[in-house]
Amino acid sequence: MKACMGLISGYIFELQNFSVNDGKGIRTVVFFAGCPLSCQWCANPEGLYINRISYRKETCIQCGRCLQVCPCEAAMDHQGVPVWGKCSSCGACAAVCPTGSRKALLHQYTSEEVLRLLEKQKIFYRYSGGGVTFSGGEAMLQKDLLRALVNQLYDEAVDLAIETSGYFDFDEVKDILKKMDMIFVDIKHMDRGKHRVYTGIDNQLILKNIARLKALKVPVVIRIPVIDGVNSDIENIRATAAFAKANLDDPKIELLPYHMLGDAKYEALGLEKPNRSFKTPSPEYLLKLQRILQREGVEVVSYR
Amino acid sequence: MLTERIEKARQSYINSKPAISYERARIWTESHKGTEGEAIPIRRAKAFRDTCRQIDVNIFDGELVVGVVGEFRKCGILTPEFSWSWVDREMDSFDKRVQDPYEMTDQQRSYVRENIFPYWRGKSLEEAFLAQLPEDTARVAVDTGFVDNDSKWRQAVGEITPDYQDVLFKKGFGGIINEARQQLSKLLRTSAEDLKKKDFYNSIIITSEGIITLARRYSAKAKDMAAAEKDAERKAELLRISEICSRIPENPPTSFYEAIQFLWFTQLGGILSENPLALNIGRFDQFMYPYYKTDIEKGVMTAEEIQELIEALWLKLSEWVWTISANTAEFFAGYNQFQNLTVGGKTREGRDATNELSYMCLKATETVKTHQPGLSVRIHQDCPSEFLAAVTHLVSKGTGFPAIHSDNAGYQMLLNAGYEPEDARDWNNCGCVVPHFRKTYEWTSAVNINFTAALEFALNQGKSRLTGKKIGLEEKTPDRFESYEEVEAAFYRQFDSLIEHSIIATLLAQRLHKEMVPRPFLSSCMADCMNSGRDLVDMGAKYNIGPVLAGIGLAVTSNALAAIKKLVFEDKAVDMRTLIRALDANWEGYEALRQLALAVPKYGNDNDEVDDIACKMANHYYREGHKYKDINGNSFNTAFMGISNYLPTGKVIGATPCGRKAKEPLSEGVSPFAGTDTATPLAAMRSAAKLNQDVHSGGTLLNLRLTEDLVNTRRGQSNLGAMIQTFFALGAFHVQFNTISTETLVKAQKNPEDYKDLLVRVAGYSTQFVHLSRSMQDAIIARTAHKNY
Predict the structure, then answer these.
(1) Mean pLDDT of chain B
(2) Which of A156, A266, B316, B522 could be stapled to A271 by a disulfide with Cβ–Cβ 3.0 to 4.6 Å?
(3) CA B691, B619, B693: angle at the middle one, nearest 5?
(4) Exposure of B775 by Cβ count < 10 A (0-12 exposed, 13-18 middle, 19+ buried)?
(5) Is the predicted pLDDT of residue A3 greater than 70, yes or no?
(6) Alpha carbon of residue A93 to chain centroid
(7) Using a CB-CB distance cutoff of 8 angstroms, which residues of chain B are in contact with residue A261?
(8) Strands, E, within chain A: which ranges?
(9) Is the predicted pLDDT of residue B656 greater than 60, yes or no?
């Protein structure tokens, strides 16, 4: 059985140890690559398969080793900067870069490799009540790798959580969801049309899936990435609360204020930064939303 | 919340400048002029008693715990019997020096030059040491930054914990006098051994009389002040102080108030007798608890009143200033006296030891924000979560306190050093991070060894890169090394030679201490000295532990070796000749090569390749250090302590192959080099825990910086608690955190006036940020702040 599991592999863009805001205790967040949504404000653009090589100018010594190995003539232009348009993200340059200025952001891992990397963190999980959180991108897109990891870690009694867009085929991943200790699922917008505008897809499947989670008896937290100019209006927040109340036994919502921490990643990947009309809501306004949710009968949770 | 009284005292403490008093030195000198020819212990005891009889007695506004070492509120004293020449050389610039300046007037200066120093010419410990130190060792070990033990020949040793539990609070100094008299009556006048004991017991009687006299003078002073006092409440307080000082420390204390005043008189006695480093308080929450409990039960005092007394003690401990040379101040920056106070842990019987006082001590440090005492906690695996929460709460306040220690690692370290199990369970910290027990005589910071110097000498034909001076052993030119193993072997040759010089310098200092500066007052605080009739310096204590060598630069040196291994011998990215040229040029013109060097994995990121180099070095250090015996036949011990020694030792070292530039600080204890632990604090902890920490019984130290927002919620603090427990489960001994934002530190650097009470962790201890020199401040800011969101 184990040997068979070893054959399962997939794309991961980061194993982030010492994460403390994605479930209980001290955790490792496993970021799966690939996402069915294309949210305009995405903070993890490396998960989108657009480009898999990052470049840091400050540490690059212009040694030219990348030039010699690049099959696409994309390693450097006359200023010594990558020619992003030609890059096929093969990773050859990252493999030879002596200063780590070029990094492959996506890694192909087998489930056993991931488990080995998690091994050293387990002692921290034990003392803190933490565990592993699957995130992305959308982990459900690589359900075979996800399932292999979940089955093994579940048997080891490691606390498991998932952060999902809610956009998946419920019946195909039901067994995975059942093994979770906590499910975080986003509702980006209750309005079908606006959801489509901002994320590229419809929200009906997401809402339907959330309604079905109730039957699994796994604690669920609905997360709203609160963005001024997109979804922070009171009407939308109220609608989300009403939906949570109607569909969950123990309705909980976490408000995650939009942040611009992803900007540096866009730069390193040679991508255009998100639209500046997206704004971080003020702490006062967040407090107001929190009170509204509470009045609607929803518990507001936070992992800060 | 502080009471108005404590807040007032705190403000006055913060706003007064450290000043030097020569009173102790004057009385000490006059006394010695009158005792020429008498036995040395007797002369020192009489000088102490004269000091107690004559030194200024001062009770400041609103004080509850009284006693000061001179006429100033923040007061330092001089001990010319140890060294006067550095004071003579440096005192004209005391108020101008960068690290730890003192106030001193011209009149004071001319007085000591005319009336005090001339007497000590040719008689001080420093002069004897320098006269007898072999020339080749002197070249390596006197004010060089390569090997440094000047705190052992320009200063007293200190590094001791008076035994309140079994001696002082049981007998009082009156009881000690009676015991000494009884012992004297049993001695034979015809036995050579007994003759020496006779001097010892007489010296004990004299010093005990001295401290009792000092207390009585305070009693009289308080009474006088009470008579003149108009405020009825203060008058009553002064009368109470007068009554307490008339009873203790002659008699055992009968209340918490008496016990705490007794404790402070004992500290005063220790200070006046030798101006010691690390005169520890020990397990305060344990030996004070019976008094606390009785007072609360009988309604003698409320918990609030006891809290106020504890805070008053914290201020007293901070007001005394350790007078040290500019060189020593570089190593021990921040007016730090290292009076360690340990709370929590297990009892001698293996039960959890935390009690109300453990929490009250944490609270006192949080509210008074003084750099003393050096507050340490012992954390065991089933320590109450409430206590761990209180500890992490204090961490979140950014004072750098408390120093957090693994209860079990400390126990193991003492077992390894040969302690009985109950005594090992009863350990307290000495100075900063040294596991210690109160019935012990040891030198816990005997000598500092600069690991990186050994590598510099190996790569530079035995010469200092900055001065070109030949200091190390002869070595071939570096481009002739043909393998990494050869480089490593050359490094270890130089390393062993530095250890050898450290041993030579320490053995001499030990012998001179034995001959010249016996310690009757502190010996009287030790049961076994009293029973055996032997002074501390003559191995009178129950445990006599070999001197501790403190290693500096473990991370830098390991990083440097890792860089040579990878760049020169594995990747062949650069040849040795070019690398050395880059180091000589301090990387100027070699920026690309420096980037390559910086990209080689660094210690502190759980990378086995470089961590293995560090681990091997630490084990070698342990074996090499333990090879030698001290003058009492005990093995030398090893430690990776901090103090602030990673700065001065860095100033004398040129650029290093890891990418570090010339004169930059080295690394402290087992901490990563500043700014290179870029993975997570968990990875830094895993790296540090790979070293066999428990064999380095002189203590190990890991400092980490966390951003405020990681620990400013209860949840964040709980996770921090889990991190600490995990680190200890991995086998580590100590960790301490700075949790101030870089922003705050930069602001404090710009506007020191607004941040006078900002405490930061230096290394093994905390001190006021604004009291650190600019380069020290920069070094603190440079430590990686771990942030993970």
Answers:
(1) 93
(2) A266
(3) 35
(4) middle
(5) no
(6) 26
(7) 789
(8) 9-19, 27-32, 53-55, 102-104, 107-110, 131-136, 159-164, 182-186, 220-226, 252-257, 299-300
(9) yes
Q: How many helical (H) and strand (E) elements, i.e. helices and strands, does chain A have?
A: 12, 11
A2-49+106-300: what fold? TIM Barrel (3.20.20)
Mutating which of B719, B728, B730, B789 best tests the A interface, going by the most A Cβ atoms within 10 A? B719
Q: Choose from A15, A16, A19, A26 for mutation: most chain B CBs within 10 A.
A: A26
The model's pLDDT over B152-203, given as tens digits with 9 standing for 90+, comes to 999 999 999 999 999 999 999 999 999 999 999 999 999 999 999 999 999 9
- Has residue B788 got a pLDDT over 60? no
- Flag if A304 and B681 touch (Cβ within 8 Å): no
Q: B118-133 burial string, b = 16+ CB within 10 Å, else e? A: ebbeeebbbbbbeeeb
Closest Cβ–Cβ partner in B710, B715, B725 for A127: B725
**CB B591 to CB A20 under 8 A?**
no
Q: Identify the CA nearest to B270 among candidates B112, B52, B83, B116.
A: B52
Separation CA B341–CA B339 (nearest Å): 7
Q: Determine contact: A18 vs chain B, CB below 8 A.
A: yes
A195 exposed, middle or buried (CB, 10 Å; 0-12, 13-18, 19+)? Answer: buried
CATH class, domain A53-104, is alpha beta
Cβ-based contacts of A59 with chain B (< 8 Å)? 595, 598-599
Q: Which two tokens stand for residue A58?
A: 């400050």
Average pLDDT over residues B689-696: 93
pTM score of the predicted model: 0.91
B726·A126 Cβ contact <8 A: yes
Chain A residues with beta carbon closer than 8 angstroms to that of B729 = 123, 127
Asked if residues B114 and B25 have their Cβ atoms less than 8 Å apart, the reply is no
Report how far residue B365's alpha carbon sits from residue B210's, in angstroms, rounded to the nearest whole number. Answer: 32
CATH 3.30.70.20, chain A: domain bounds: 53-104
- Is the Cβ of A16 closer than 8 Å to some Cβ of chain B? yes
CB contact under 8 A, B682 and A17: yes
Q: Give the separation between CA B328 and CA B527, rounded to whole angstroms.
A: 32
Neighbours of B357 (CB within 10 A): 25
Chain A CB within 8 Å of residue B595 CB:
yes
- Other Cβ atoms closer than 10 A to B225: 17
In B, minimum Cα distance to A130 occurs at: B719
CB contact under 8 A, A124 and B682: yes
Residues within 8 A of B (CB atoms), A 92-151 only: 98-100, 120-121, 123-124, 126-130
Q: CA B713 from chain center: how many Å?
A: 32
Beta bridge partners of B76: B20, B321
- In the numeric block, the tokens 């923040």 are attached to B74
B175, with CB counted inside 10 A (0-12, 13-18, 19+), is middle
CB B412 within 8 A of CB B387: no
Bridge partners of B463? B470
* Residue range(s) in chain A whose domain bears CATH number 3.20.20.70: 2-49+106-300
Contacts of B41 (CB under 8 A, 6+ apart): B199, B200, B202, B203, B518, B520, B535
- Check CB contact of B611 with chain A, cutoff 8 Å: no
